[in-house]
Amino acid sequence: MQRHLSVLLLSMCLILTTWSFSALASPALQGGVIDDLNTLQAQLQDGALSSVVERATAQAERLAPGNQSDQWASALYQQLAAGALARQDQHAAAADRLAIARGLKGVDDAQAARWLREEASLRRAAGQRDQAIDLLSEWLSSHQDSDATWQLTRLLAQQERWDEAAQWLDQALEQEPAINEGLSEAQQALTLVIYRNAGQGGRALGWLLDGLNAQSEAAEWRQAAGLAQQAGQSGVAAGLWETAWQLGKLTEQEDFWLLIQLHLAAGTPARAAEHLELALNEGDIVRDESNLRMLASAWRQAKDVEKALSAWQTLALHTQTAADWRSYGQLAYAWGENNQAKQAFARASSLGDEEAEQWLASFK
User: Fold this and answer.
1) CA 118: distance to chain centroid?
2) Which residue among 71, 169, 326, 349 is buried most deeply as judged by most CB within 10 Å?
3) What are the start-end ranges of the E strands in the chain?
4) Where does the signal sequence lie (predicted)?
5) Nearest CA-CA partner of 343 in 330, 292, 318, 321
6) Contact 221/244 with Cβ under 8 angstroms?
7) Nearest-10 crossing angle of helices 109-125, 129-140
8) Could you tell me which of 214, 215, 211 has the C-alpha nearest to residue 224?
């Protein structure tokens, strides 16, 4: 009898890979029950799914009120019914059967834990995410499994339970032998999404920076810089973008303008000015009023007297507006360059700027 039961259990493992259990430490079954289970198993293998569900359900209900042996048999019938239901894509109904099976007295703790894990998978397949989360959390409280931990983390993220997701993510990352190197693209993306939504932008950035190198793709550099901005670390964002630019990872014109904006926001206007100056000299950007004004403003922010005054003079010569000549004069005056200031105010005055005339009067 016991040999026949072992054959039954083995065949169920082979055919229903979702389900697995052992007869060890379980109550002995009557010969008629074993034969019936074997018959149902054969029918399941042949695809007689509805018949298996009907017969297994009737037997499970009949035996459930009995002793431990009867309840163990009832649990096995419920498992057969669950297997047939799952094959019909009735995942929620299959999960319900496993929930009943693992609650019966004849089921040992190890088997109940295996059914708990499988019920969680069925709940997830049925779209019952919150139930799947509860079941998987319960299972992981006494088991360590990297795949299951990632699965729970993803489920929590899908439910936008970000703080809980971040806690389980920490455990998932601890179980990986090498952070970043051992993660799939999907896992890396999930890690960043969870940390960001959990309000841990700085941590997400630190995690991402650990994996950045000269071989990293442009998208990774962009992502790191974006995270730095979100975390309020403008200097880090500018430094990342600068490095990626120098490595040739970022080559589009929009990348160039973002590089300028990042340096200006990060308090490194001199670097922004150097990039602008080089681009203007090499013809990479148009020498128009907007770009000349940006260059002049950058050098002014950098407080480089010689270059700032030269840039403002170039801008004024280009626009020939009284306002720009006056601004150039005011800047020169503030920095003690009186000769340049006089010339600039005189030019602004000749263009009808009354305020510039008042400035000129101060030199008399």
Assistant:
1) 27
2) 169
3) none
4) 1-25
5) 330
6) yes
7) 150
8) 211
Q: Which domains does the chain have, with CATH numbers?
A: 1-141 (no CATH), 290-364 (1.25.40.10)
Give residues with Cβ within 8 angstroms of 147, minimum separation 6.
Answer: none
48-52 contacts at long range (C-beta below 8 A, 24 or more positions apart): 49/84, 49/85, 49/87, 49/88, 50/84, 52/80, 52/81, 52/83, 52/84
Q: Which residue has the tokens 């007869």?
A: 23
Angle (CA) 144 146 150, round 5°: 120
Give exposure, 257-268, as e/b (b: 16+ Cβ within 10 Å): ebbbebbbebeb
Residue with tokens 């389900």: 19
Helix (H, G, I), strand (E, B) or coil at 313: helix
Residue 261 has pLDDT above 90, yes or no: yes
Position 118: which residue type? E
HSE at residue 307, side-chain half, CA atoms within 13 A, is: 19
Among 216, 294, 290, 222, residue whose Cα is nearest residue 252: 222
Q: Rounded to an integer, what distance in angstroms lies between the CA atom of residue 156 and that of residue 105? A: 32
8 A C-beta contact, residue 311 and residue 324: no
Compute the Cα dihedral for 36, 40, 43, 45 and give only its sign: negative
Residue type, 258: L
Token readout for 310 is: 């030269």
Q: How far is CA 66 from CA 75, 80, 272, 325, 330, in A?
A: 12, 19, 82, 100, 99
Confidence grade of residue 27 (pLDDT, cut at 50, 70, 90): confident
